[in-house]
Specification:
This protein has 428 residues and is of the alpha/beta class. It has one domain (3-417): FAD/NAD(P)-binding domain. The protein is 31% helix and 24% strand. The protein has eleven helices and 19 strands. The chain has helices at residues 41-52, 69-72, 85-92, 94-117, 136-151, 188-202, 249-252, 270-273, 315-329, 372-387, 414-426, and strands spanning 3-8, 31-37, 57-61, 76-77, 129-132, 158-160, 177-180, 184-185, 205-208, 212-217, 222-226, 229-238, 256-265, 282-285, 292-295, 302-307, 338-348, 355-359, 362-366. Helix 1 (41-52) packs parallel to helix 6. The longest helix has 24 residues, at 94-117. The chain binds flavin-adenine dinucleotide. Flavin-adenine dinucleotide binds at residues 37-43, 60-63, 68-70, 72-76, 78, 211-212, 239-243, 245, 247, 260, 262, 292, 305, 344-346, 366, 368, 370-373, 376.
Length: 428
């Protein structure tokens, strides 16, 4: 790999970090009405809405605020769900899938609304997204999806045949695509930094590098032990998604944490960068181990992501694998340097759907399956409604949330699943 001499193992989005204020010396209050654990989009959106409703809220995170997945992702603010619509309909019925899809559209509006409300400078733009067909059969599936989105969901998307794909992507790897113009792109770290600043301005108590280690139920409320002391809370929101650990065993049995890796090229001349994705779309393909890619908001770099292939290898070695994947899409970038490589954790559920609810007194929303920029924000707001005992109008609330059989947090089945997925991706 031709690595740039400036190669860094940090997210492109955090160089420099958009949030300059430190919250590590803020003292942990002895009590709070609502304790939010996790400072990504879910927790921060919930904290903002609760504070605006006059609730006393404390938001803690074991890391620096807003530096986990919510600052490391592709910034693809997508319509739709991670699971295919047909599969959801087969399991849950026509009406339910309609509601869930409508909420996915609303979730993109929610991000747009919050960005406007907080005047967050985060390059939010409705670039549209492109789902590219890796196999000819996938293109036939995309054509069926387009018809269905039109007929059943009243949502307009567009089919782009392989012969016209050059107007959207300078690659001959794919067999056509589905374009959804409603999706957006955002600078994810500026977005979460803006949300944290909004929460700060509203008076949410913000404490970083505070790990919730144990939750004890009291007659009323909870006592929470952290590495910085114990505090009590009337209500708790768990917003830990891919970083969910032993604190909440019930959730851990329902969520598999998976790492995704992204690389960013060095700055490219406009005549090299712009034709890669001429209309600036957010792109992902139809493989099980999908690639996702986009241009940086300034249009100067290609950002490319996919599964972290080998957690035991160094970030540099994994970046080499990702570089080769990038070349399978854009062979012409063979002598381009890679300046950044980083990874983050995603939360996957058995039905590939996010889940929001209350279990054993704890409110939670997680399991976005790589589709969380818009949905985590949206469901974070819904959590705030739930805590205030308002009826949260979301169809996600009563989805059956099944434990993964024979699983308590150690995904022993991963090698088998990965081998199956790789084989399916290779087969014609
Ligand atoms: C590399 C990558 C690329 C992605 N690309 C996209 C994309 O393009 N589009 C898209 O829609 N989605 C994407 N995603 C997914 C998206 O980033 C997530 O779904 C979303 O950020 C989840 O937000 P969250 O607030 O629920 O969780 P997070 O942002 O992960 O925050 C969870 C927080 O909980 C904290 N925490 C955990 N346990 C504790 C504890 N015990 N005490 C205190 N704090 C704790 C963690 O430190 C962390 O900060 C991507 C994810 C990754 C990793």
């Amino acid at each position: 790999m031709l690595r740039s001499k400036n190669f860094k193992e940090i997210p492109y989005w955090l160089d420099p970090p958009p949030l300059t204020k430190s919250f590590s010396t803020n003292s942990l209050p002895a009590r709070t009405d609502v304790l939010v654990i996790g400072s990504g989009y879910t927790g921060t959106a919930a904290a903002i809405r609760l504070k605006q409703a006059g609730v006393d809220v404390t938001l803690i995170d074991m890391a620096k605020l807003g530096t986990a997945a919510s600052a490391r992702n592709g910034g693809m603010t997508l319509t739709g769900l991670s699971e295919g619509l047909t599969k959801i309909e087969n399991k849950l019925g026509k009406e339910k899938v309609k509601q869930l899809f409508a909420e996915s559209l609303e979730s993109v509006n929610t991000v747009e609304r919050l960005v406007a409300e907080g005047s967050i400078d985060c390059d939010f733009q409705r670039y549209g997204h492109l789902e590219t067909a890796f196999k000819p059969a996938h293109f036939e599936d995309l054509k069926r999806d387009q018809e269905r989105l039109h007929n059943q969901f009243n949502h307009e998307t567009h089919i782009i045949p392989a012969s016209e794909l050059k107007t959207e992507i300078d690659s001959s790897l794919y067999h056509g695509a589905l374009l959804d113009p409603i999706s957006a792109g955002v600078h994810p770290a500026k977005y979460i930094a803006g949300l944290v600043s909004m929460a700060d301005d509203l008076g949410v108590k913000l404490c970083e590098e505070v790990t919730a280690e144990d939750i004890e139920h009291r007659t009323t409320g909870f006592s929470v032990r952290t590495n910085r002391g114990t505090m009590s809370a009337d209500e708790i929101i768990v917003a830990t998604n891919g970083y969910t650990g032993p604190l909440t065993p019930w959730l851990r049995k329902r969520l598999v944490s998976t790492e995704s890796l992204m690389i960013a090229t060095e700055e490219l001349p406009a005549e090299v960068a712009q034709p890669l994705i001429p209309r600036g779309r957010m792109i992902y393909d139809t493989k099980r181990f999908l690639f996702y890619f986009r241009l940086s908001p300034d249009g100067k770099r290609l950002l490319f992501g996919g599964r972290l292939k080998s957690p035991r290898k160094t970030p540099q070695q994994n970046a080499e694998y990702m570089f080769r994947d990038m070349l399978s899409v854009y062979p012409r970038l063979h002598d381009v340097g890679i300046e950044y490589a980083w990874s983050g954790k995603l939360g996957f559920t058995m039905d590939r759907s996010p889940h929001i609810g209350k279990h054993n007194g704890l409110y939670y929303s997680l399991g976005y399956c790589g589709h969380g920029v818009a949905l985590a924000t949206y469901l974070g707001e819904k959590l705030a409604e739930m805590v205030q005992r308002k009826n949260p109008a979301t169809a996600f609330v009563d989805l059956p949330f099944k434990a993964i059989p024979f699983y308590r947090g150690n995904p022993w089945f991963r090698p088998f699943v990965y081998a199956y997925f790789s084989t399916m991706d290779r087969l014609a």
